[in-house]
Amino acid sequence: MPGFERFGTEERKELQDVLDNGVLMRYGFDGMRNGHWKAKSLEVELQKTLESKHAQLVSSGTAAVSVALASAGVGAGDEVIMPTFTFVASFEAILMLGAIPVLVDIDDTLGLDARAVEAAVTEKTKAVMVVQMCGSMANMSELQVVCDTHNLVLIEDACQAIGGTYKGKPLGSVGDLGCFSFDFVKTITCGEGGAVITNNEKYYLNADHYSDHGHDHVGNDRGAETHPFLGYNFRISELHAAVGLAQIKRLSEFIAIQKKNHTILRAALSTIPEVTFRTVPEGGEESYAFLNFFLPDLESARKTIEAFKTNGVDACWHYYDNSWHYVREWEHLKTAKSLFPLSAEIKQALNTLNTASFEQSDHYIGRNISCLIKLSWTEEEVHSRAAHMVAAIKAAL
Ligand SMILES: *Cc1c(COP(=O)(O)O)cnc(C)c1O
């Protein structure tokens, strides 16, 4: 990660096709496009790669999460359970639909703790949003049991975990609906883009219509299409899809590089007895997009990230002190700072975050360091990096 490190002739060729015929729009203009349907072709590739019956491309990963929730009928007043450790997009997507984000603890997988989810279920709960952070996954079997018991939709945000698997299934295809991002820093990139995958025909048709103004996409005369329900515009362009079409074919190449680099760094860090690693649930295979490890306590984690900075070890984060990924620093969410009025129900729910205790999440995120695994490193760079990391951690302990 990220895929932009490896742009090559394939990406250029796909883009050139689109520029040559001039059709930047994914729907219609059949006569002009010389048979090039980049978005449609990418959807077919995604279906194959992600072993899913349907794939709907959208304009971003955040749009994918909103579209997935809307397609499953989640809306005003519905509660969606989500983890304390994720990206801000999770609650943005929920709030956009007028639904209520309910934040619960993560466990040593760095994903949703099924017991915490079970404890948070109320009569208003409609969906559980599991986020497969940093290339690995939550315990999906346990979460599936909770969802089945309470008849909840399981939405899987696999934006950071494309290429990982759980019990032989691609991540994103385990839940009822899976979401992906192809933004500029993801393993597979289009510049901006995203996708929703599902085996459920109704959810797919909902996603297809909803992401394009509610158009039904029946026939090939665009002006004659009807609107079975309200929608918005979350379309991807042919230019973006063209880049993604080249990139998706290189997924296994990228995962192999990530795995190789990850293995070298992990082996080096394993020589330090105080360093431990996140739990990968039984049957899980990471995408190796990140290496996550734990220090013994908050203080040693803070010292380690400082030592990384002074030793030139870049692309590592201590999310506990970061406002992008962890509840502790989400002041704008806790104080419900919105440009437009939010419902009293939502404001009340967000206010509970000011007094809620997420001790279990603090216990893991406070001690966790997360390092991006790049695709462009030479073997020499990986080994030198490993040596710098080990020296910095030892100095911080
Ligand atoms: C990147 C990301 C998103 C949002 O994707 P965009 O394409 O940037 O909107 C959502 N969830 C997670 C976990 C992400 O990492």
UniProtKB/TrEMBL annotation:
Write down the Pfam families for this protein, in alphabetical order: DegT_DnrJ_EryC1 (PF01041)
Would the keyword Transferase turn up in this protein's UniProt record?
yes
- Spell out the molecular function terms from Gene Ontology: pyridoxal phosphate binding; transaminase activity
Q: Does the keyword DNA repair apply?
A: no
What organism is recorded for this protein?
A: Lacinutrix neustonica
**Protein name in UniProt:** DegT/DnrJ/EryC1/StrS family aminotransferase
Keywords annotated in UniProt? Aminotransferase, Pyridoxal phosphate, Transferase
Task: Give me any GO biological process, just one.
Answer: polysaccharide biosynthetic process
The family database entries (InterPro entries) matched by this protein are listed as: DegT/StrS_aminotransferase, PyrdxlP-dep_Trfase, PyrdxlP-dep_Trfase_major, PyrdxlP-dep_Trfase_small
Family statement: Belongs to the DegT/DnrJ/EryC1 family.
**What PANTHER family does its record include?**
DTDP-4-AMINO-4,6-DIDEOXYGALACTOSE TRANSAMINASE (PTHR30244:SF34), TRANSAMINASE (PTHR30244)
